[in-house]
Amino acid sequence: MFIDYLESPLGLIECKASEKGLRHVIFCGNDKQAIKTNHITGLAKQQLAEYFSSKRTQFSIPLDAQGTDFQKAVWQCLVDIPFGEKCTYGDIAKLLNKPKASQAVGGANGRNPISIIVPCHRVIGSSGKLTGYAGGMLRKQWLLAHEGIDHVKEEYTELLTQVVKTRQSKTNFLT
User: Fold this and answer.
1) What whole-number distance in Å separates Cα of residue 93 and Cα of residue 79?
2) pLDDT tens per residue, the chain (175 residues)?
3) Distances (CA, A) of 69 to 74, 76, 117, 123
4) 120 classed as catalytic
5) Which residue among 13, 16, 55, 90 has its CA within the 20 to 30 Å range from the CA of 30?
6) Are 28 and 74 within one domain?
7) Which region holds residue 48: left if phi is over 0, alpha if psi is between -120 and 50, else beta?
8) pTM (2 d.p.)
9) Bridge partners of residue 13, in order along the sequence
10) Domain with 17 in it: what CATH number?
């Protein structure tokens, strides 16, 4: 496995890849391992830096996410959500021809190992409210605001300075 890190406005990001593609992109707090890069981790860092500097709205990195067939189907739907747009868990369930699977979609969304590039932050609840995000709700608000989506509170900036030092939740299963 190959691993590298990127400093971002939302804290340190860990990019891990196999020879085939990107395995995970997570907010890692201050947890760092030894760096061992390949062309995929380099490409991920470059494209994420471009995203954060508003020079990129789509990613073109080979992916190698590990999950169930259902999770992979959900994650593919996430990749298809355009920059600056949002959808609901129910919308994704309908795309998968499983209209009653909103909660299962939410579970798969929460296990997405490739933050930002597989944009699970663009999914909201059916009521229009923001719902959970493994990277933390403040990061989700920041990402949505960065993309011009209007679900943002201005007072989160000070709190964000505390969040950027924390490791993303639900990432202990990643190897």
Assistant:
1) 15
2) 999 999 999 999 999 999 999 999 999 988 899 999 999 999 999 999 999 999 999 999 999 999 999 999 999 999 999 999 999 999 999 999 999 999 999 999 999 999 999 999 999 888 878 888 888 888 998 899 899 987 555 445 555 555 555 666 655 556 5
3) 9, 11, 19, 20
4) yes
5) 55
6) no
7) alpha
8) 0.86
9) 6, 27
10) 3.30.160
